[in-house]
Amino acid sequence: MKYLFLSLIFFLTNQLNAQDFNEKMHSITYVFSGKYYNDWESPRKEYTRLLVRNNKAIYQSYNIMCLDSLKIKGLETSNDRNKYFTFNNNTVKISNDTIYYSEVLGANEYRYKEILNLEWQLTPETKEMLGYNCKKATVTYGGRSWTAWYALDIPIPFGPYKFKGLPGLIVKMNDATKDYDFELYGYVSKEKKPLEKLYQVEKDKIIEIDHLKFNFLKYKYNSLTLREKAKFRNSARSGDIEFKQVDADGNEVRFRDNSKISNLNFIELIKL
Is residue 146 a contact partner of residue 174, using CB atoms and an 8 Å limit? Predict the structure, then answer.
């Protein structure tokens, strides 16, 4: 009877600890490095943040968070946009198996919905990473093969970008080419707070789009010249813009005739 009582106390304590853990908001910072163009000698680095509570998560670049804060206060300027420039001009929201991905291209914010169940391959291999005892897992997503190291001591089934579904927090992750890498920088738990992007674009001004169509549109936009991009950024929000390229004489050229497209190396690869 004594052992049964002690077992019951142990079970209830674990349940309460788990409930307390889930009710808190967990703030995870990653150092992210990405090689956005094939001819870069080395990837660019920046800080990103993952916020988690219960079965929901939101992932953003710190630069985007800074701009969001300025937008809320009505203080954002063109100098701020240059100061906080990032190639990760996106927000990833996760709720259970549903991904809501949004990104600004030109003057518009596009969003697509994706049901994502990653097929992780768990391995028995272990390694100490950044002070955590981690296990190894691999997965293929977005045309890339990824290796992740996750910590069972932190039972958070989320990680950077869209990666989720492991039985512990992702501490380190990179693709096979080492063009993209995420590494844990800091982790803290906070009191319960709502998980939302600081600056919310009005829903009727967000352009809902298909995932593959968005990828194609993103490739088109990023193959434009700086002058062409500036034109679209400064234009009023409108419908689904078909980004066009022009030659030196101002004549429109076919998208696939632009050699710059072959140099683009986004985190999600697609065949055009």
Answer: yes
Which contacts qualify for 162-168: CB closer than 8 Å, 24 or more apart? 162/59, 162/92, 162/94, 162/99, 162/101, 162/114, 162/116, 163/118, 163/139, 164/57, 164/94, 164/116, 164/118, 165/117, 165/118, 165/120, 166/120, 166/137, 168/134, 168/135
d(CA 170, CA 185): 11
- How would you classify the pairing of strands 180-190 and 25-34? antiparallel
Q: Which amino acid is at 178?
A: K
What residue type is 259 in one-letter code? Answer: S
Euclidean distance between the first and the last CA atom of the chain, given in angstroms as a whole number: 69
Full-model pTM: 0.82
Tokens of 206: 């967000």
**CA triple 149-211-98, angle to 5 deg:** 55
Average pLDDT, 10 consecutive residues per value, the chain (272 residues): 40 40 85 93 94 92 83 80 83 93 88 95 95 96 97 95 97 96 93 67 80 87 77 60 62 60 84 64
Distance CA 104, CA 247 (A): 25
CA dist., res. 231 & res. 85, Å (int): 17
Distance of CA 86 to the CA centre of its chain: 12
